[in-house]
Amino acid sequence: MNLSRKEMLRLIGTGAGAVALGSAATSPAAGSERGGPRDIVRDVVVIGGGAAGTYAAIRLRELGQSVVVVERDGRLGGHTQTYTDPASGSTLDIGVVVWHDQPLVRKWFERFDIPLRKASFGGGVTRYADYRTGREVQGYVPPNPGAALALYGEQLARFPYLEYGFDLPDPVPADLLLPFGDFVRRYGLDDVVPSVVQFGQGLGDLLRQPTLYVMKNFGSDILRNLQTGFLSTERRNNSELYQKALAELGDDVLLNSRVVSTERDGGRYASVRVDTPAGRRTIRAQKVLVTIPPLLGNLGGFDLDGLERQLFGQFRHSAYYTGILRDSGIPDDVSVRNIGLDTPYHVPQLPGVYVISPAGVPGLHNIKFGSPTALSDRAVQDEIRASMRRLRDAGTIPTARTDFATFASHTPFELTVPAAAVRAGFYRRLATLQGRNRTFYSGAAFHTHDSSLIWQFTETLLPRVVAS
Ligand SMILES: Cc1cc2nc3c(=O)[nH]c(=O)nc-3n(C[C@H](O)[C@H](O)[C@H](O)COP(=O)(O)OP(=O)(O)OC[C@H]3O[C@@H](n4cnc5c(N)ncnc54)[C@H](O)[C@@H]3O)c2cc1C
């Protein structure tokens, strides 16, 4: 690895006010215990620097806490990902695209001086094809969701607590545990399904998921924003948020780093040993805020106790992939959306492509692909190539070139547990982990896959983190 001295200093946290012995600590406690030269002493160590972790780190500093973020990748942002087209210099958001129009979101972007605008969707021509055969589904027109959305909104109003975390009543209402397909049938919500599919990309087999997860993902604030308009960045570069946050956090972010071991019980500090590109460091922090997907395989090195292991071991996850196709042969103003010719509500068969849509730059198309379970990048790319060939052979598109300008796996994506586990109190027990073993949790697994709502959830959690 070729690093400049400045980069090196940032990674190991030896720039101004970074490491050790509380030199940068903003709270008296942080510097009150001495450590070795490779120790980093902070109030809070944040694991993961995506939507939840970045928000938490900045806000915790504002609340007077010293922090350090441990991030596996070489950047902050997680599922927020921006591709820069080398030919035009245009930036294209291929991960997170929109945010809710709400005060917290506006304030968050204003803080970094990033202008927002109302997001615009669509434009151009949408064609519908069954990607299993490649044939265009002639005459298909998606149902007008208006009346069904109103009915769906009435259903959502029965479960207001879904807007914040998984604070579910006991017993959990049986309707929330129904497979979503059954819920749709019971309440005559057929015409809402295509909208739910569009927003619920990445959720896996949507009609089989417990209704709980679908309603959390496609919730009341989404319905409100469908009417008032979502927000996106004026400069079409959502990663700017995370670049600016990284610049501000500076030495308090350890990129390309991973947790090797933790000791969270006993003593006055949690010890978190981390491998960084500049060697192993020990972080000693009063509190640990975990914002990464809490799967056992992703928590290697954590000293999980029995309850943590038992709960995290129950999570299953779906898979979601994105990319940009160059010169695919699909006209620049055409989207080809996958629907099932003979599937219930024409839900696309997964694993499969959700949609190939114009990226906003001539010759480039965005592609979204979903699967109920994880696949290798290779398998996904092969299936995309095969889909393109089927579309071409069926005459739906003129040619079938599959040159990936970029490709990314966003897997694991949605973390779920079976309905029976929810019924048996999984989320009640999960909530008891907040604050246990000096550890707090935020991120999609603790609310839903929605950056704005995750920021809101995190904001509400932070006073507890600070006070503990
Ligand atoms: C293609 C796509 C489009 C989306 N569109 C939207 C949208 O338009 N609007 C919206 O609000 N939401 C959207 N989402 C959902 C949104 O991105 C997520 O809800 C949000 O990013 C989740 O935040 P998080 O902090 O839980 O996880 P992430 O943002 O994924 O952050 C987790 C971070 O932890 C890091 N990490 C993981 N494991 C480890 C480890 N072991 N050690 C250290 N670091 C680790 C990851 O690298 C990552 O940076 C989209 C998601 C995808 C994939």
Automatic annotation (TrEMBL):
SUPFAM superfamilies in the cross-refs: FAD/NAD(P)-binding domain
One Pfam family this sequence matches: Amino_oxidase
Domain Amine oxidase: 52-294
PROSITE patterns documented for this protein: TAT
Lineage: Bacteria, Bacillati, Actinomycetota, Actinomycetes, Micrococcales
Name the UniProt record assigns to this protein: Glycine/D-amino acid oxidase-like deaminating enzyme
Source species of the chain: Promicromonospora sukumoe
Source species, domain of life: Bacteria
Single Gene Ontology MF annotation: oxidoreductase activity
